[in-house]
Each structure stands twice: as structure tokens, then as C-alpha cells.
Write a structure and sequence with these properties.
globular, 10 helices, 280 residues, 10 strands, two-stranded antiparallel ribbon, 8-stranded parallel β-sheet, TIM Barrel, alpha/beta
Length: 280
């Protein structure tokens, strides 16, 4: 299976590691660490050395309770970095829900739009549909970043997430975006309880049965802190464990902060799978 993106057909035969590059002052884990374009570009280069297959650049935090960022501020953070990052030889994803930002980064050569709002903002789908090839990640989010953890979801989270993602994927295709350009993200931590997040992991095969590749974003999330007691700066081990479990249950892409450690763990997992196939 391949994920079609603007410049690359991403081979999903083996799990792909998407390295997180936040150019924000307030992201929950690494806010402010890569605030300048030079610092962020060096971080991009290091993540590629560490084994990242894809880079995901974000200029607005979507942590619970985070305030919205103006269009001007987001463009000022993201555009200079994307202009340089597209020369690095790997697919460049941009984490945004604003259609104006989508258009700007696609014009610069970005490959993927990663939208926590699943293209529900007015004009977003039109921007993606007008592009001949760009990939798109459609994520499930309950409510919005300001209120999603104030009143999390209730009921059968897996069925609700699956229904939502299937619907927005079909709507996106109806506007001219080929299925091969779409990947789905259940939105771990976006309006779900700890128990619901782990239900999405445990029953991820249900989401996989939709026929779309899956992206899993567990890295350093608060649910990992809830079950381990570790603060955000010490969640590398549970983050890597969650990434491997997500891949074992069918995720094609894992979005992570700790690229080197995740790549190493997935190498062990892949070697086990290959040996298992040889013994069949």
C-alpha cells in the first residue's frame, strides 16, 4: 500500500515514523524549543538523521485549553521553515486547519496536510481537492482544543470515531480527493478519556477495517502519564511502547517526538515479523 503525497508515494509496507517539529511557544511537550527557523531546521535535519521518514511541522498548539493562533502568526512561524524543509529529501507534512496556511505551504512544495479538524473549516477541503496529489491526514477531534477535555466523549468511542472518519473520508473523496491520498487518525487525547484512548488502541483493528491506512499519535500524551505516573519530560519509554503497539495493531504511520528510539524499537518489531513470515 502506498500513500500518495505531493512529491512522494510513501511505501506503507513497513511502518513510517513521522517526526514532530513544533515551531510554537506553547506546545505541551516541546513548546519554545525550536522557535527560530534556524533552530527548527536543525531539528528537522537531526530527526532525519535519527531515521524519520516524514516531518510534521506545526505552528499552532492544539493541546487541551490552548488558545487559537492568528493566521498571521501561524504563517510567520511555518512558511520560512517549510520553504527550507522541502529541500531535505523527505515528505513534509504541515499540521494546520487553516485553508490559507494550507494553500501557502502547498505552494511552497509541502507534501501533506495534517488537519486536526479533518477539513471541516470552510474552504479547507477545496484547497486540498484543488491540489493534484497532496496527501491529507483526517483526524477525529471531539469539540475543540479549548473545550475538548472539559466535556470528553461519552459512549462507544470506537464506533463513534470510525463513523466520523469514514464519513469525512467519503466526503473528501466526493470532492475529488483520491482515496490513495487519505490517511486517518483517531485523535488520541482529543476529547477522549484515558480509558477511551486505550480502547481506541485495543480495538484499533476495527478502525483499520475501514480500508484506509491509519496514523497514530501517542507521543508523550497525558494518557501515558496517567497510567505511568510520569511527567511529560519522562514519557519516552511509554511513548515508544505505545507506538509499537499501535503498529502491531495496524497503524502505518506513527507521529512521534522521540524518533531515534521509536525507529530502533520498530526495527526489532519488523525483524520479528519477518522471521515469523519465514517460518510460516
Amino acid at each position: 500500500m502506498f500513500w500518495q503525497t505531493a512529491r512522494f508515494d510513501v511505501d506503507l509496507t513497513n511502518p513510517q515514523v513521522m517526526g514532530i517539529v513544533n515551531v510554537t511557544p506553547d506546545s505541551f511537550s516541546d513548546g519554545g524549543r525550536h522557535g527560530s527557523t534556524i533552530s527548527a531546521l536543525r531539528h528537522c535535519e537531526q530527526l532525519i538523521k535519527d531515521g524519520a521518514h516524514i516531518l510534521d511541522i506545526g505552528g499552532e498548539s492544539t493541546r487541551p485549553g490552548s488558545p487559537a493562533v492568528s493566521l498571521e502568526d501561524e504563517l510567520a512561524r511555518v512558511v520560512p521553515l517549510v520553504r527550507d524543509a522541502v529541500t531535505l529529501g523527505v515528505p513534509i507534512s504541515v499540521d494546520t486547519y487553516k485553508p490559507e496556511v494550507m494553500q501557502a505551504v502547498l505552494d511552497l512544495g509541502a507534501d501533506i496536510i495534517n488537519d486536526v479538524w479533518a477539513l471541516r473549516q470552510r474552504g479547507a477541503t477545496a484547497v486540498v481537492a484543488a491540489h493534484p496529489r497532496c496527501g491529507v491526514c483526517l483526524m477525529h477531534m471531539h469539540r475543540d482544543p479549548q473545550t475538548m477535555q472539559v466535556a470528553p466523549m461519552v459512549g462507544d468511542v470506537v464506533s463513534a470515531v470510525l463513523s466520523f472518519l469514514e464519513l469525512v473520508a467519503l466526503d473528501t473523496q466526493a470532492l475529488g480527493v483520491e482515496k490513495t491520498r487519505i490517511i486517518l487518525d483517531p485523535g488520541i487525547g482529543f476529547g477522549k478519556t484515558v480509558e477511551q484512548n486505550f480502547a481506541l488502541l485495543a480495538r484499533q483493528s476495527v478502525l483499520k477495517a475501514s480500508g484506509y491506512p491509519l496514523l497514530a499519535g501517542w507521543s508523550r500524551k497525558s494518557s501515558l502519564g496517567a497510567v505511568t505516573g510520569l511527567d511529560v519530560d519522562h514519557r519516552m519509554v511509554p511513548s515508544v511502547a505505545a507506538a509499537v503497539l499501535a503498529v502491531e495493531r495496524g497503524a502505518s504511520v506513527v507521529r512521534v517526538h522521540d524518533v531515534r528510539e521509536t525507529v530502533a524499537a520498530l526495527a526489532v518489531f519488523t525483524a520479528m515479523q519477518q522471521a515469523d513470515r519465514l517460518n510460516d
